[in-house]
Design a protein that fits this description.
Layout lengths: L1 H30 L19 H9 L3 H30 L2 H20 L1
Helix pairs in contact: 1-3, 2-3, 3-4
Amino acid sequence: MQRFIGRTLQLGVLLAAFVVVIGAVIVLAQHGAAAADYRTFVPGPESLRSVTGILRSAIRLDARAIVQLGLLLLIATPIARVLLTFIAFLLQRDWRYVAVTGLVLCLLAYGLAFG
């Protein structure tokens, strides 16, 4: 089980990096010659401020949404590890670690939802 969880982490990070690189290449191809103006802060579009908006925009091949999707995958990778560890402890019936891992999972969910 530990090897499976380790491979999940490796594949998650590699997939996230691949998606970010693809998005970055598209961003540079489309906007690479544009001059950046750092004097005023311009927030990203509303569509890139939620998970569903990012997914919808990435499906439409919006380059910035693809980069954001890669970052979401990077964030989801350790959360998937905690979830897989929780399941492993459940299968082993190691209730102390089920409780600790469950608490960590709840804290991660709370932080993502309200943080």
